[in-house]
Amino acid sequence: MGLRALLEREPGLECAGEAADGAAALALVRRTRPDVLLLDIRMPGTDGLAVLRALAGDPELRGTRVVVVTTFAVDEYVFAALQAGASGFVLKDSAPDELVNAVRVVAAGEALLSPAITRKVIGLFGRHGTEPVEGLDLLTPRERELAAWVATGRSNEEIARELVISPETVRTHVSRAMVKLRARDRAQLVVFAMRAGLTPPG
């Protein structure tokens, strides 16, 4: 109820519905086809990870982007949620403007990970080592560099400021990297970059 009240005060945002568990959430998504779904990990019956996998496995529902909102910042949940197709991951105790921003960012096609979550994911991949990523050899050096920056959790604007280039240049290279790696969205690009062990220079 708190999230609904928060979101409905925001211009341009409309709450399509709310559900008490995973099965009800899936039914609601099938009925209303929302742009963004705020999803908890732990729910009675069908949990959030099962909902994510069901959405990813249904071509008609892949248009709904998912922000995982949870009290659990445990590595295994973060990793599993990203692997299953989450586009954003924020904690329930985040400031209200962070939650609203998460919805807007993900609706615009970006990925969103809080800095704390990003550090956990990077640490997890660091412990597990690197893996081959199909299409990685097709990336230009600049595309590899930009994919590595995306994996730090920064937005295009933040990367542009860091590298002193335009956000449009960042967007172009990131988009090309996504096409070559066949990443369904920016969040999956983060997963691929981390799997490959890509890190920004310096």
The biggest beta sheet reads: 4 strands, parallel
Number of helices: 10
- Count every beta strand, where a strand is a DSSP E run of 2 or more residues: 4
Q: How much of the sequence is in beta strands?
A: 5-15%
Gyration radius, in Å: 17 Å
Low-confidence stretches: none
- End-to-end CA span: 45 Å
Identify the overall geometry: globular
Which structural class best describes the helix and strand composition? alpha/beta
What do the pLDDT scores average to? 84
Report the order of strands and helices: HHEHEHEHEHHHHH
State the share of residues found in helices, binned by percent.
Answer: 40-55%
Strands ordered across the widest β-sheet: 1-2-3-4
Protein name: Response regulator transcription factor
InterPro entries: NreC/VraR/RcsB-like_REC, Sig_transdc_resp-reg_receiver, Tscrpt_reg_LuxR_C, WalR-like
Keywords: DNA-binding, Phosphoprotein, Transcription, Transcription regulation
Pfam families: GerE, Response_reg
Which terms summarize this structure?
202 residues; alpha/beta; 10 helices
